[in-house]
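Minutes, project check-in
Item: structure for the 69-residue chain
Input as provided by the requester:
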Amino acid sequence: VLDSLPGEKLTYRSWKEMHEQIKKMLGSHNKIAMNYSPMNNIPYVAMVDAGTIEIIKSLGYEVVSAADL
């Protein structure tokens, strides 16, 4: 299914491997803009679930809203 889509395909078998792939994908960037709205102040911007944001933060990245981009 993914072969027809553009971009690199990253696969994983466990949550540890998923975290490694996320770190590989995000690299040395320390601030990550996501479709996230702090306190859901702009609800139509919020498209990323809380669990994904928690994972990104737990890996040492700062998550910021992409609303102003």
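Outcome recorded: The radius of gyration is 14 Å.
No further action items on this chain.
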